[in-house]
Amino acid sequence: MRLSLFSSIVASYKSPVSTPTLIKFNPQLVFLNTFYPHLRRSSATAATGSDCAITKNSAGMASASSKLAVVGNPKLIPRELDEVVGIARKCWIKFKKEATFGMYTPFLVCLAAGNLKLETFRHCVAQDAYFLNPFAQAFEVAEDCAEDDDAKIGINELKKITLNKLRMHDSFVQEWGIDPVKDTSVNPGTTKCIEFLLATASGKIEGVKASGKLVTPFEKTKLSAYTLGAMTPCMSLYAYIGKELQRVIDGESNHPYRKWIESYSSDSFQAFALQTEELLDKLSVSLTGEELDIIEKLYYQGIKLEIDFFLAQPLVQKSVVPLYGEPNLEKRHLMMFTDFDLTCTTIDSSAILAEIAIITAPKSDQSQTENQIARMTSGDLKNTWGVLSKNYTEDYEQCIENILVTEKVEKFDFEGLRKALEQLSEFEKGANLAVVESGVLKGLNLEDIKRAGERLMLQDGCVNFFQTLSVRRKDDKVNADVHVLSYCWCGDLIRSTFSSGGLRDVMKVHANELIYEESLCTGEMVRKVESPIDKLQAFSAILQQQQEKFGGGGSGNDEEEKKLTVYIGDSVGDLLCLLEADVGIVLGSSLSLRRLGNHFGVRFVPLFPGVVEKQKEYVERDPSSSSTTWKGLSGILYTASGWAEIHAFLLGS
């Protein structure tokens, strides 16, 4: 079935040219035409219990003379989504990663752990008291400006709810023994939130020309929409935080801050936030694209200020976030490791190399010159890739099943897992040998590969994370090295990908390398990193070199206190390194990875609850201890939703 489907896909390619040139890729076909289909992830694979799913696509391949296109979609909000949801939901989807940064603020992590100092909590509650009155005032302005009767009624209801919350807040303040006037003054974070909200409600908006007195109904409605645009992110953020924290504390009946968390996770507050979003949508219906852009900017400002509000809370205790700011870690050397394919990228690199090969292949044997490296015709290449793909997929799945027929262990067994993955390692090496011997890589042009890498779309937030890390390294705020460990057949593809983000000198690449003669691949490969065992050996060798460089080749005990290892990966090939690292973070939802991990006693823990548990451990242990709470070979791997969450955890805002 897969073979016939693969054949129908590659049959849609237009005839390629005979010489390497600039190439235009069809992202959908690249996604399908891959030598490693078992790594493709989708809802379909989760439902069927397989990591392999191929969807038929009849789109044709653009001519090879076209300019190389960006692989993937750079828009945060797809066009289809843009047409079916309102501005409030679109803004939330676009800026939800900012909410993730809010969750990983020291204040909220300590609060979730239940060990936030009472004086810090009291300070935050007192700040809320300062903020609620201006919030009610802003609702009043929005109500006065709204021309639609239904909108007026809705905003009036929200204003009443806010005033009621203010009365409830007064009761809450008394219960905790807080006197805002005596106990605290308005801090800068609160002041900025208040000033932003009141300025927006008064029409003082960046990029909007002040019109003086509002005359027309449209002008009034527009200001009402802008005001709601500044207020809505606060409601949406608190509703999100309430739900996330509620999941973490479920089952903890004695959690000291349960009442505060439940006030925001409650059905009534969730409905309050939803009603605010719906009113923003209603008031924005008649706005132009330019005016909707202003609402988007106001929304972004609002959510950023709310996160700054949490960061402004004076913490009188130590926190485990951000990780590199954890006490005892500031002076340690961060050894950062990441996989490349589908960890950093949205598409497997083998798919890109396969597509370049097919597009640039000659139409027939007669079209090749004597000076060229002998290549298969495009038709033969399509067929050969199909056979390789089919054989690889079937043999890989069988190899995984052979490992899983052994008895499942009760406790984490790293050595048992490593020994089992030796079987997979032999298979991976054999598969790469088959690729080399087939000749499918012959004639690939180095310049085509580099251009493809420069335009390769990475996972959202990936480049930003490494760029932030790079800037902090230059500013001497982070002592870190970054290593890429990859099965990719072509290290040049990886280096060119990161060079487009100014990261070529930051990322140290450890991968296989194609062999060239005058920029054309001979079909041979320097095979360095082909298997889980190879990755583990490379990982260990890098750490050993680090130890010899700074530890003088001694026992390494001092060096163990100096380095912190973090590994980020998505597949079975990363499993051993993920477990060896002090912190192993899994991206994506590879079923094979989880099945193998579970079989050998590995626990997969969502990152945020895991961080909260570490915060509890940190407070409970000896404060004079110089060791970190993060250690390798614990048998625990942390699952993250994306690079934004990794960024928030490791580096903070």
Q: How would you portray this structure in words?
A:
One of its GO terms (biological process) is thiamine metabolic process. Pfam families: TENA_THI-4. Residues 106-203, 227-310 form the Thiaminase-2/PQQC domain. This protein is α/β, with parallel strands linked by helices. The protein has helices at residues 2-10, 27-32, 43-48, 79-82, 87-103, 106-113, 118-145, 149-175, 180-183, 188-201, 217-249, 258-265, 267-284, 289-311, 349-360, 378-404, 414-438, 446-454, 462-474, 491-499, 532-551, 557-562, 575-580, 591-599, 607-620, 643-650, and strands spanning 333-338, 480-485, 507-510, 513-517, 520-526, 563-569, 583-586, 603-606, 636-639. The chain has a seven-stranded parallel sheet. Helix 20 links the parallel strand 2 and strand 3. Helix 5 (87-103) packs parallel to helix 11 (217-249) and helix 10 packs antiparallel against helix 11. The protein is globular. The chain starts with a helix and ends with a helix.
